[in-house]
Amino acid sequence: MAKIPNIEDTKRAILDIISSYKVRPNEIFPIVQVSVKLQERGFRSTDIDPALEEMVNDGWLLPSSSPHWTITESGFAQL
Length: 79
Description:
Number of strands: 3
CATH architecture: Orthogonal Bundle
Number of domains: 1
Radius of gyration: 12 Å
CATH class: Mainly Alpha
CATH superfamily: Winged helix-like DNA-binding domain superfamily/Winged helix DNA-binding domain
CATH topology: Arc Repressor Mutant, subunit A
Largest sheet: 3 strands, antiparallel
Structural class: alpha+beta
Distance between the termini: 30 Å
Shape: globular
Strand content: 5-15%
Strand order of the largest sheet: 1-3-2
Number of helices: 4
Helix content: 40-55%
């Protein structure tokens, strides 16, 4: 049986994908594409959504109504 990812595993995977876009603090990245790439790696929305919510609550990411979110200085420090 495959290991079910915990929230820390999911957050790390999100950060790894965001870093592949070569963003700097306070720059945008395509959140939809991040989600697609996570799903290709076997993550489910029930893994992804709580991790993203926690990252927003921690001040690492700024959501928006557009398909692009922003990585904050705090979030960038986690990369």
